[in-house]
Each structure stands twice: as structure tokens, then as C-alpha cells.
Amino acid sequence: MIFLSEQLLLGWVHSFFWPFLRISAMFMAAPIFGARSVPVRIRVSLALLISLVIAPLVKPAEDIDIVSMQGLIVAVHQILIGVSMGFLMQLMFTALVIMGQSMAMSMGLGFASAIDPQNGVNVPVVSQMFMIIGTLLFLSIDGHLMMIASLVSSFELYPISPQGILDSTFYNLVNWAGYVFLMALVMALPLMVTVLLVNLVFGVMTRAAPQLNIFAVGFPITIIVGFIMMLISMRVFEVQVLQLFEGGAEMLIQLFGGSNVI
After folding, report:
1. Containing H/E element for 223?
2. Is residue 123 over pLDDT 60?
């Protein structure tokens, strides 16, 4: 006859509850998993399954009472670690949105917007196209598996304890955000410079021939030139996006993943 004591049941709850907080927090903030199009039930169910799988692999936590002030502090730390990991990966896809917005505004397509299923906000159609391509590239290199592996390995670098995330980690996250926005500008710069030169040419033409209707002629030409430059830049777009994803993976491993992620 199997006898289940109260102490044994509490030990099982503790071993499962703390990893579940960190995993579910990351799934709420991470790209793809945290998309508005993914139902909350799916995210919670996936977090439950992964928690059940990795709970035996996680170093047992200290004797922490869940319904105490110390338990509240540990819960906040676990949620903060998970959200930070998801936010770090989410920044990469934000770079694609910013790149598409910069291109669309330069081409005059800023008004052509649609609902982004990832974040539930209006973004230009150009940004939505780059988001779809970036998501497919991310899945093709098993980026989602890398995120889960980093999440599992994060319990080695940040074990379940009252000690929270390091201050240097927040500083590195801010630096990573600056690098991501710089990459977005670099990827959009060729098209923006080309459209700027086209606008300068139309400005000279307007001064030489004031009777020219610049709005009727310049608007479609600017859009056509923008699409041509977008098509040309697609040759290096894959390389730049993969470089961005690799940088995000290295940063995730450096800050949270430990040494045995890959």
C-alpha cells in the first residue's frame, strides 16, 4: 500500500510550482509562443508539460513556504527571469517590425497597415511580410528548441532561491536592445537612402519645371523604386536576419543559458 504523506505531497508541489512560474512567464513574453494568435490554454498546457518533464532535472529548491513573504519574493524572481528571457528573444522580431516600418514610411506605404497577430497591434504590411519571413527562418534553425533548451539550462545559472537576477543582466539587456535597433536601421538603410536620393531628384525636377505635378508622378515612382530595392536587398536579408538570430542566441546563452544549451 502506497502511503502519501503531507510532506511528500508538498515536496512534489514545490518541485513543480517554481519551474512552472519561470516557464509560463517566458512563454507569455517569448516570440511565437507568446503570440496573440496562440490561445492562453495552449501556452499554459505547454508550460505544464515542460514543467513536468524538467522538474526532476531541476536542483531541489530550499525549504521555501509558498504562502510566505519569502515565497512571494522567489515567485517574483522566477517570473522576472522568465519574462527577461522572453523579452530578449522578442527584441529580435521587434527589429524586423522597426525595419519594415522604416521602409514603409520611406516608400509612402505607412498607411497600408494590418493587425499583427504576434502583438495584436497595427503594423505596416511591409513589417508583417518581414515578420512572416523572419518567423519561418527562426523555426528553420530550430530557434524555438534553443529557447526551451536555454530555459532548462537557466536553472543552473539561476537556481530557485531568494537570490534574483543579477544587475549586470539588466544592463546587458539594455545594450542588446540598442544593438537590435542598430541592426534594424542597418537593414533598412539601403532602401531609405535610395528613396531619399529619388526624392532629391524630384525636388530638383520641381525647381526646374514647377508645372510638374510631383505628387502624381513621384508617389508611384517612389513605391516602385522601393519595391525594387526591397527585392534586391532580399539577397542579403536572410544573412542579416540569421546573424541577428545568432546574436540573440549567444546573448541568451551568455545571460541565462549556461554552458550546455547547444
Report:
1. helix 214-252
2. yes
